[in-house]
Design a protein that fits this description.
The chain is of the alpha/beta class. The strands form 5 sheets. Strands 1, 2, 4, 5, 6, 7 and 8 form a 7-stranded antiparallel beta sheet that branches. Strands 9-12-13-3-14-15 form a 6-stranded mixed beta sheet, with helices on both faces. A hairpin with a 2-residue loop joins strand 1 and strand 2. Helix 8 packs across helix 14, helix 21 crosses helix 25 and helix 23 runs parallel beside helix 25.
């Protein structure tokens, strides 16, 4: 079995949301103060046997609630979990169904059971409540009345099955669940070094003589015989130690205990003395965890960093879970369903250790923990799990919480499976930022990725302040990623604004040719008799994302555009400072920029074959002289650099120029291409 969903009503920042879980690891990501901790606390309210915060306060209710609703009935908090059969092979056990049989709401092979936490005002006080709030005029008045006169009367219940029947769960059944929880701000050093630490004692008690208890070659009787012999040997040796201590106190105790006679402790011939025995459990407290290095140096755990100690502590927790789940050791008190909750494990871990930690959890999940819940802000951890294990918390405009499940946005069709596999391979630690950002920009190449931040500044925007993630997809592969953001076709989609900046990429092919080849925009549709023409299929509105409210695909002008670098010069044909030392044709570009017309420019453009073809095509097209002139400069500029080769240097030049924006003598006017400017305006409005 596994906890398949959790419905939270009226609790903290959850008005009425249902969260779906995975059978195994659940990685919850989302903004700060978005509800991740409250989600885990809601789980603990139900499943932690001795939960210390089940008694809630006035601040645990979800607000706002409309005044009419508050007057109609007292507010209540209801958290309902649904339990379903495990979908992992060989994970379902007979004990599972026996445990939840009284909570079943669906009786067949695909059973369902429910376990709920309810915090409400008992019915006998409801009439008094309604009368007390009947004359109120604001919500705050009602909450004040609840806090002053009714919150103390509220009661909580853990109920099983159909919640309307309010059948309380017996504590014995609830104790078969266990929740081990580690919050984000923790220092486990005390728990590791404290001599009275029960966690370490319990773990040692379970693993002592482990090789005997797990020796398959021995029968149960033989195992018991060996362990009994070890215990007897220990008792014999420990008795000698105790007797040795008593003998050393033989004279000293007379002086030490002489005060007993003076205080009356020897009344009625009773005389204090020393005796004792030493059990194995007594010596557990003498054991200390140390770290032994290859050099032979041994250091106590107190000398380790927080991150290393946290890993050790988590490993001890898993060991404890295994011990508590062992039926031979615990009998009918054994834990059947252990749950592990960890908040922000990256808080004390180096990025390389974060990946190792996650692998450690996954390796231990099936054998020790039935379900794991982890919250994180780490792209390292998020990128190391498959998409189906990710749960994304989202905050709406009115702070309303919702959840997205990227994996569920991909269909089971051949196309959907292909897109999922592509995205899964793509999401490494740098690109998984898109799942954490408030907004996303997809670009085709390294040039746009490097320069977009400074271009946004020229438009009066900040990429950083708006929590925008720029993702270079290395080509025109947007459709794979946009499925995760397509709120029109999937209720599980990530509801955040996404801007795709794409090139027109005009192409043509001869009527007898099989493949299209790149061409310039001024070569389009000038010889329809001998050529077929095409461009980027995302240009226009005839694609699956054209009417999605939160997605915009922005591109250059349909007639004049080609690529990002080409468009830079179309908008800035006189900007000599955009010519860098690493480009070719530097002097020729500068000469072209000094020209005043297309006729002047074509005379110095050059006589190479491709240059002649460009001039010939420009003369055939119906553009204005100014457009032809701009296109000629943009063509040579594009030919003079490799794709992305100049982007870093150009970004530096643009940044240096922008730094002089308040100094007219040093600042050069620069025009951001329209498709970028318009796209940023839409994204950041």
């Amino acid at each position: 079995m596994y906890i398949s969903s959790l419905k939270i009503q009226g609790y903290r920042n959850f008005k009425n949301q249902t969260i779906e879980f995975n059978d195994g690891i659940n990685m919850v990501i989302g903004p700060n103060n978005g509800g991740k901790t409250n989600l885990f606390r809601a789980l603990r309210l139900i499943y932690e046997p001795h939960c210390r915060f089940r008694r809630l306060s006035i601040n645990d209710f979800h607000r706002p609630i409309a005044l009419d609703e508050l007057k109609a009935a007292s507010p209540r908090i209801v958290i309902t979990s649904t339990i379903k059969p495990s979908i992992i092979p060989n994970k379902e056990s007979e004990d599972d169904l026996r445990l939840i049989r009284m909570w079943l709401t669906k009786l067949d092979d695909e059973y369902e059971a429910q376990l709920s936490y309810v915090f409400e005002l008992p019915s006998q006080y409801e009439e008094e409540y309604c009368k007390s709030v009947s004359e109120t005029t604001t919500e705050n008045e009602v909450w004040n009345i609840i806090e002053q006169g009714f919150i103390r009367r509220y009661k909580y219940y853990i109920v099983g099955g159909d919640i309307s029947k309010m059948e309380k769960v017996d504590s014995e059944s609830l104790n078969r669940f266990d929740v081990q929880s580690l919050d984000a701000l923790r220092n486990v050093e005390y728990d590791l070094v404290n001599s009275r630490n029960s966690l370490l004692k319990e773990v040692i008690d379970f693993y002592i003589d482990f090789e005997i208890r797990n020796n398959q070659a021995l029968s149960n009787e033989e195992k018991e015989t060996e362990q009994r012999k070890i215990r007897e040997d220990f008792k014999l040796n420990s008795s000698a130690i105790i007797n040795h201590l008593i003998n050393r106190l033989r004279i000293g105790k007379e002086h030490m205990l002489k005060y007993a006679s003076n205080t009356g402790a020897s009344f009625n011939n009773a005389t204090p003395d020393f005796n004792g025995d030493l059990s194995e459990q007594d010596l557990y407290s003498a054991l200390r965890i140390i770290v032994r290095y290859q050099t032979g140096i041994e250091l106590p755990i107190s000398h380790n960093g927080l991150g290393y100690n946290n890993l050790i502590y988590i490993s001890l927790l898993l060991a404890k879970i295994q011990a508590d789940s062992d039926i031979k050791r615990m009998g009918e008190n054994a834990i059947i369903y252990p749950i592990l909750i960890i908040e922000e494990p990256e808080a004390h871990l180096h990025p390389s250790m974060q990946y190792k930690f996650l692998s450690f959890l996954r390796d231990n999940q099936t054998s020790k923990v039935r379900q794991i819940f982890v919250s994180t802000h780490s792209t390292q951890i998020a990128s190391a799990v498959p998409l189906q294990e990710l749960i994304c918390v989202q905050r709406g405009k009115n702070e309303e919480i919702s959840f997205a499940y990227p994996y569920k946005t991909f269909s089971n069709s051949e196309e959907g499976i292909k897109s999922y596999r592509y995205v899964q391979r793509f999401l490494d630690a740098t690109r998984s930022d898109m799942l954490f950002a408030d907004k996303v920009i997809f670009v085709e190449g390294i040039a746009e990725q490097l320069m977009l931040d400074v271009l946004a500044r020229y438009c009066g925007h900040s990429i950083t302040d708006n929590h925008v993630c720029i993702v270079n997809v290395g080509g025109r592969y947007f459709e794979h990623f946009l499925k995760m953001f397509n709120t029109r076709s999937s209720q599980y989609a990530l509801n955040k604004r996404v801007l795709c900046l794409t090139d027109i990429d005009p192409t043509r092919k001869g009527k007898r040719e099989k493949t299209f080849s790149k061409c310039y925009p001024f070569e389009m549709n000038i010889d329809n008799e001998n050529y077929e023409y095409a461009c980027n299929p995302f240009v226009g509105t005839d694609h699956e994302f054209s009417d999605v409210e939160n997605i915009l695909i922005s591109h250059q002008d349909k007639t004049e555009g080609k690529t990002f670098e080409y468009d830079l010069l179309l908008h800035n044909p006189k900007c000599k400072w955009l010519i860098t030392e690493r480009m070719s044709n530097v002097s020729k570009l500068q000469e072209l920029m000094d020209c005043n017309s297309f006729n002047d420019a074509k005379k110095i453009f050059g006589n190479a074959e491709w240059r002649k073809q460009a001039i010939e095509s420009l003369e055939k097209c119906t553009w204005t002289d100014d457009k032809k002139y701009r296109a000629l400069i943009a063509t040579l500029y594009l030919k003079s650099l490799g794709k992305g080769e100049n982007a870093l240097l150009l970004s530096s030049i643009l940044s240096a120029n922008y730094a002089n924006k308040d100094n007219p003598e040093k600042f050069h006017t620069f025009n951001v291409p329209e498709y970028i400017k318009n796209g940023l305006e839409w994204l950041l409005k």
